[in-house]
Amino acid sequence: MEIEEKIKLVNKCFKKTNLLLDIEMHDYEGCNIYIRLDYFKKEKVHKISWIDLNLISDKNIKPYLNSEYISVKYLDNIAHSINNNNLTSINYTDLDVNDGLVKLNLYFNEKKKKNAITILFHRYIPNELSFTFNIFANVFDNLPYKLEMFLRILSAKLNGEEEKYDHEKSFKLDLYKEDMDFAFRKNVISKGRKYYAEDKVKFLEKINDKYYAVVKGKDYYAVIVDYTEDLNETTLYCSCPCEFHCKHEYAVMLAIRNKEFNAFYKVAYDIPSENVMEKIAGFKYYLCAGIKDDKLILLNNYGKIEYVPLFDNEGKLMWKVIEDDKKGTLKKKIDKIM
């Protein structure tokens, strides 16, 4: 069922109300959200309603629809923003970004919906219409926290924080041929090249469609490069605190291009109480980057570096090496500690 069709089904649930505004969020952070503000004539109250359109699989809408009363102060704030910005004839479209379509329809003081003010943009509120932030803020302040978080992204351009959110998005790049410098700051490029030249990319391995790496800087950092070759679509992730594409990612990209792979050690959690069949059924291994301070350096399931004790409280070794390098380096280090 198409998103537009689902929205029409939702609207059928509001036949006896006056619609004041609605917001459509298409493929926004992977979500499809529909929000509307109505005046319920029979009850003489205003309500804000929202629905996650991804949950709908048939024409039964009501189980997924949520509504809450909205106080007069929020309505006054929204009306003030609209009336003070001469919106009577604006139909604004800003499609510079290619994901996260947002459509705001305003029906305040409009007798016919066909005369509604429509503002259409992708992902971020345009600087030219910064006043609409007040409208979104008053709407999202009445929604659950998980939806309120969208407001931070919506306002990113107004706060100069687009890069904070953009660095988590995928971008078009032939990983092996095209110039990749456009995705990085100039100072990051020079630092990344230095990290690469100094062999700080300690481990790099391709597993399925992802490249996993560990870079040694002030600490150990996990880098994941997710590359879809047929689409030339690249997504970069690093466990460091940077809110932009960092020097660790750049160094790893250079290592990939130069095919400088170094497989991780593989370790498995060893539980002696399990029988053989249970071990096989629940088998899991972890990517390991060595040992630091008598602890294994693991890349966990969340893409973070985790330092895990080798031994339990009784001094028993909890881990089994299932893949070592040719010299048996990890096994030798563990034996030495034991």
Explain this structure:
The structure is a single chain. The termini are far apart. Strand 11 (220-228) and strand 12 (233-238) form a beta hairpin. The chain has 9 helices and 17 strands. It has helices at residues 3-11, 72-83, 132-140, 145-154, 162-166, 186-197, 247-257, 276-281, 329-337; strands at residues 17-28, 31-40, 45-52, 66-69, 91-94, 101-106, 117-122, 171-172, 201-207, 210-216, 220-228, 233-238, 265-269, 286-292, 295-299, 305-309, 319-323. Helix 2 packs antiparallel against helix 3 (132-140). The protein is of the alpha+beta class. Helix content is 25%, strand content 32%. Strands 4-3-2-1-6-7-5 form a 7-stranded mixed β-sheet, with helices on one face.
List the topology elements.
Layout (H helix, E strand, L loop, with lengths): L2 H9 L5 E12 L2 E10 L4 E8 L13 E4 L2 H12 L7 E4 L6 E6 L10 E6 L9 H9 L4 H10 L7 H5 L4 E2 L13 H12 L3 E7 L2 E7 L3 E9 L4 E6 L8 H11 L7 E5 L6 H6 L4 E7 L2 E5 L5 E5 L9 E5 L5 H9 L1
Parallel strand pairs: 5-7
Antiparallel strand pairs: 1-2, 1-6, 2-3, 3-4, 6-7, 8-12, 9-10, 10-11, 11-12, 13-14, 13-17, 14-15, 15-16
Helix pairs in contact: 2-3, 3-4, 6-7
